């Protein structure tokens, strides 16, 4: 890592000084993955210069590794003939992702530069909605029929290996392309050359092209499949989702959830190559929403202004109570969102989840409330300690229940559970917690 940082710094200095020969020598010291990291961390203009210094063979390899948004930036900086060559060399699913990052006029020009076969394949992928696995599948695969022998299948693998996305998992189809089985290359290699694929194949697991890409990727990753067949509504084979693409989909989904849980929209490109305006835009909407929702807390404080005037010490505990409620709700929301993502919890489990979270929240409230009661009673008086203790108990139970329910509600109405982000739940628990606090205080302290 230290060596990469050194080379990157020297490369930036060489490009800034206009010493392109030295910059080219420095790039030769890096492998394609390291060059990709350097380009994705560079501003657009410098990234384009760096890319142009690569040899033709390395340039294609690096381009395929780049984030689609960065690929889109480079397309604008390269000559038409360079772009056309790169676009035609990409896999069809990678082409589809790049098209999503380009203006319609540029995308159309690149599509017209493809061969009729490549254009038809890419257009078919683009026909599926964004977010579906059909948009991320590869239509380039090796398949077999049940009546094929192992020897013939191996001949097909050798003939198509150069163009196929993967050869290690081989879907088996009938004469009308319906998926009937799956066989691994290992099984074919280890079998008798005259054995039929029908004897070797096993029951296939698959996903519909219209299914969520994240759900299909989760199936592929959880079962450790090297590739998952993708079919249409009549189980006709359309393509495959490879394990590396599945892991990339899951990484993208996790990055999106983390961003939204933190109260912002996910960046669509590496951080250092994202403009300041784009970063600000990704955050400002949520900040405005949260600022407006925080007015609930202000309204609650205004309602109980007279109560605070009679017992000023109550104001000292507001940060403790609101912070505890917000953190408890956030913990529950994060746990349930993760459980939904990995399939541990379904929306039909709502009552089980709520019952568990009420119990968890009550247990946490008893522990924190007991501690709060003792400390407040020692420093102030027993009635004040009772108010703090009971409030912590009620707030923890309420916040855990709300935090657990929000992701399930989001899933039910087909909204990303991460949209009900941590700041949103925190704001809700703040306002509700204050209502509980002042209600208990008025009842116990008779104010």
TrEMBL record:
GO terms for molecular function: magnesium ion transmembrane transporter activity; metal ion binding. Residues 200-256 form the CBS domain. It is found in: Cell membrane; Membrane. InterPro entries: CBS_dom (IPR000644), CBS_dom_sf (IPR046342), Mg_transptr_MgtE_intracell_dom (IPR006668), MgtE_N_sf (IPR038076), MgtE_transporter (IPR006669), SLC41_membr_dom (IPR006667), SLC41_membr_dom_sf (IPR036739). Keywords: CBS domain, Cell membrane, Magnesium, Membrane, Metal-binding, Transmembrane, Transmembrane helix, Transport. The chain crosses the membrane at residues 284-304, 360-380, 387-410, 422-445. GO terms for cellular component: plasma membrane. It comes from the Bacteria. SUPFAM superfamilies: CBS-domain pair, MgtE membrane domain-like, MgtE N-terminal domain-like. CDD domains: CBS_pair_Mg_transporter. Belongs to the SLC41A transporter family. Acts as a magnesium transporter. This is Magnesium transporter MgtE. The lineage of its organism: Bacteria, Bacillati, Actinomycetota, Actinomycetes, Micrococcales.
């Amino acid at each position: 890592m230290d060596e990469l940082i050194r080379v990157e710094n020297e490369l930036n200095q060489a490009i800034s000084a206009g010493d392109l020969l030295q910059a080219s020598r420095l790039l030769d010291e890096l492998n394609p993955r390291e060059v990709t990291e350097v380009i994705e961390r560079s501003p657009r203009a410098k990234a384009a210069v760096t890319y142009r210094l690569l040899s033709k063979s390395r340039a294609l390899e690096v381009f395929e590794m780049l984030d689609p948004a960065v690929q889109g930036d480079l397309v604008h900086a390269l000559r038409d003939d360079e772009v056309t060559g790169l676009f035609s060399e990409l896999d069809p699913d990678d082409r589809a992702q790049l098209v999503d990052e380009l203006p319609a006029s540029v995308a159309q020009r690149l599509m017209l530069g493809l061969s009729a076969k490549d254009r038809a394949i890419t257009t078919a992928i683009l026909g599926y909605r964004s977010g579906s696995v059909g948009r991320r599948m590869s239509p380039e695969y090796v398949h077999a029929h049940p009546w094929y022998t192992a020897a013939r299948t191996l001949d097909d693998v050798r003939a198509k290996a150069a163009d196929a996305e993967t050869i290690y998992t081989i879907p088996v189809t009938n004469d009308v392309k319906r998926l009937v089985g799956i066989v691994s290359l290992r099984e074919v290699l280890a079998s008798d050359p005259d054995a039929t694929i029908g004897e070797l194949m096993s029951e296939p697991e698959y996903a519909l092209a219209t299914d969520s890409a994240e759900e299909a990727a989760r199936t592929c990753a959880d079962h450790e499949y090297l590739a998952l067949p993708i079919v249409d509504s009549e189980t006709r084979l359309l393509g495959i989702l490879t394990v590396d693409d599945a892991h990339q989909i899951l990484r993208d989904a996790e990055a999106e959830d983390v961003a939204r849980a933190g109260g912002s929209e996910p960046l669509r490109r590496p951080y250092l190559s994202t403009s300041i305006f784009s970063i600000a835009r990704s955050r400002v909407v949520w900040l405005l929403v949260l600022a407006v929702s925080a007015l609930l807390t202000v309204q609650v404080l205004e309602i109980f202004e007279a109560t605070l005037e009679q017992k000023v010490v109550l104001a000292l505990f507001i940060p403790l109570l609101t912070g505890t409620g917000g953190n408890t709700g956030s913990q529950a929301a994060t746990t349930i969102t993760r459980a939904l993502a990995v399939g541990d919890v379904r929306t039909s489990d709502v009552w089980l989840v709520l019952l568990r979270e009420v119990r968890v929240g009550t247990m946490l409230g008893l522990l924190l409330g007991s501690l709060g009661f003792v400390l407040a009673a020692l420093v102030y008086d027993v009635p004040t300690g009772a108010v703090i203790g009971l409030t912590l108990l009620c707030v923890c139970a309420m916040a855990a229940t709300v935090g657990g329910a929000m992701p399930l509600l989001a899933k039910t109405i087909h909204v990303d559970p991460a949209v009900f982000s941590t700041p949103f739940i925190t704001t809700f628990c703040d306002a509700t917690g204050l209502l509980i606090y002042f209600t208990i205080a008025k009842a116990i302290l008779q104010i």
